[in-house]
């Protein structure tokens, strides 16, 4: 039996605060080739999750701690839906295969569990939204902040002039 207790979650949160990407994960699956991948992810508000999709896989998020917002987009980057996850709000969400999506962190110490079919395959270039800046790029922080504060249904990201 695998147990993730409060001490382990606290350690993940501490690691995320100092990680270059401001997030860390703990795999519960022993091998990425397993048919179901399960991982616990600690994320900080200054992480950037570039909008992306998984063409042939669903993806489930279960909120363990903190608050975040999930967003879905159409093919050109218009926000279709936003859902807040947190106390008194959604706690579990599933993205269907092919759905463009992202996650923005609203509270420090946010922790989610992600579940999706394996085997793990890194997201291909074509499955990152072409309209969203790449992670680590000059516009990534601006896009992350837009996703957090201005990305409402019908809105679309426009790079700073």
The multimeric state of the shown protein is single chain
Strand content: 25-35%
Helix run count: 2
Sequence of strands across the biggest β-sheet: 1-2-8-3-6
Largest sheet: 5 strands, antiparallel
Q: How do the helices and strands follow one another from N- to C-terminus?
A: HEEEEEEEEH
Mean pLDDT: 96
Overall body shape: globular
**Stretches with pLDDT under 50, minimum 5 residues:** none
Radius of gyration: 15 Å
Can you lay out the helices and strands and say which pair or pack?
Elements: H1 6-18, E1 23-27, E2 36-43, E3 59-65, E4 68-73, E5 79-85, E6 92-95, E7 100-105, E8 110-117, H2 140-149
Antiparallel strand pairs: 1-2, 2-8, 3-6, 3-8, 4-5, 4-7
């Amino acid at each position: 039996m695998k147990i993730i207790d409060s001490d382990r979650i606290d350690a993940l949160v501490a690691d995320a605060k100092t990680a270059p990407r401001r997030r860390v994960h703990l795999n519960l699956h022993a091998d990425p080739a397993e048919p179901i991948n399960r991982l616990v992810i600690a994320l900080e508000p200054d992480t950037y999750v570039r909008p992306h999709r998984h063409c042939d896989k669903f993806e489930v998020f279960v909120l363990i701690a903190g608050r975040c917002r999930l967003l879905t987009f159409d093919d050109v980057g218009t926000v279709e839906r936003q859902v807040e996850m947190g106390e008194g709000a959604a706690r579990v969400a599933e993205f269907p295969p092919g759905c463009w999506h992202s996650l923005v962190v609203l509270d420090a110490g946010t922790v989610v569990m992600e579940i999706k079919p394996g085997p793990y395959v890194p997201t291909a270039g074509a499955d990152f939204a072409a309209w969203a800046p790449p992670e680590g790029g000059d516009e990534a922080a601006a896009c992350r902040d837009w996703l957090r504060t201005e990305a409402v249904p019908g809105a679309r990201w426009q790079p700073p002039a």
